Amino acid sequence: MLLFSLWFRLCACLLTFFQTGISQLKQMLVEENLQLVHSACEGTASELVRKFRGNTGPSRIALPLNETDLNKKLEVELDLMLSEYSQINGPFSSTDEYKDVIKTLKSRLLLVCEERHKDNVEAYTK
């Protein structure tokens, strides 16, 4: 009976040890996965900002242009970039990483829009 009791305690200790190890491993893998999601979303966002710059640059949009037309063209391109981001990273849309990066992406695209408006004003003054 004593041997059974010792055996039972040993098994209980081993079970607790393995459960703790598995929980720690699971947490580590979840964190690593979220870092990978963030990296993937950031990579997509950077590529889309580069693409947006090209699609709205002087080789694609002849300046000067009236503000209404410029806004329409920028808005169409902005919507395309956000749509493409959502399409590429859709499987991650429930994560905070996805949501954080799309906010940053919107801000970065809006900065490019501001640059294009400044370029347009400069083109009118020439």
Low-confidence stretches: none
Strand content: under 5%
Shape by Cα distribution: rod-shaped
Derived structural class: mainly alpha
Q: C-alpha Rg, in Å?
A: 26 Å
**How many DSSP E strands?**
0
How would you state the average pLDDT, rounded? 93
Termini separation: 98 Å
Summarize this structure as a short list of keywords or feature phrases:
mainly alpha, 126 residues, 3 helices
Characterization of this structure:
This protein is mainly alpha-helical. The protein contains three helices and no strands. The relative contact order is 0.12.
Summarize the structure.
This protein has 126 residues and is mostly helical. Helices cover 85% and strands 0% of the residues. The model has no long low-confidence stretch (mean pLDDT 93).
How are the SSEs ordered, and which strands pair?
Layout: H1 2-55, H2 67-89, H3 96-125
